Amino acid sequence: MIRAAAISLALLAADLNGDQIVDGADLSRLLTAWTTGDLGADLNSDGTTDGRDLSTMLISYGRAWGRADTGDGGLWITEPGERATWGQSPFADHWRLTATRADGRTQSIDEAIQ
Ligand SMILES: [Ca+2]
Ligand SMILES: [Ca+2]
Q1: pLDDT per residue as tens digits for the range 56-103
Q2: What residue numbers bound the domain in which 28 lies?
């Protein structure tokens, strides 16, 4: 995992429901917006929701972009190729980020909920 002070705007933008991961829920919103003309999923701000926005989303798909750290305000982002999910940590008032690499190895970190 990489600790990053800044984060990909494309990755942030593709998280349409704001749950810090780009997944099927966001894809569903994009596809709905594509058919209804809703600009809520216009990721490249060109005035329409279409395949270019879908392409942007798929680049970010499966990646978690992080949560604010309780210490210095840094953000966590998974490495390229990792898939990540957020879930409840066994520690009270913490979230657990679990990243799975292509070879199946996993790595977890717990972050305090703000
Ligand atoms: Ca999301
Ligand atoms: Ca667009």
Answers
A1: 899 888 877 765 444 444 455 666 666 777 777 888 887 777 777 777
A2: 2-80
Domains held by the chain: number: 1
State the distance from the centre of ligand 2 to the C-alpha of 45, rounded, in angstroms.
5
Question: Within a domain: residue 103?
Answer: no
Calculate how far, in angstroms, residue 41's C-alpha sits from the geometric centre of ligand 2. 7
How far does residue 19's CA lie from ligand 1's centre (Å)? 5
Q: CA-CA-CA-CA torsion for 96, 99, 105, 109, nearest 10 degrees?
A: -30
Quick one: tokens of 5?
A: 């002070």
111 CA → ligand 1 middle, Å: 18
The answer to whether residue 39 is domain-embedded is yes
Q: How far is CA 46 from the centre of its chain?
A: 22
DSSP, res 90: S
CATH of the domain at 13: 1.10.1330.10
Q: Is residue 99 part of a domain?
A: no
* Cα–Cα distance measured from residue 65 to residue 19, given in angstroms and rounded to the nearest whole number: 9
pTM: 0.62
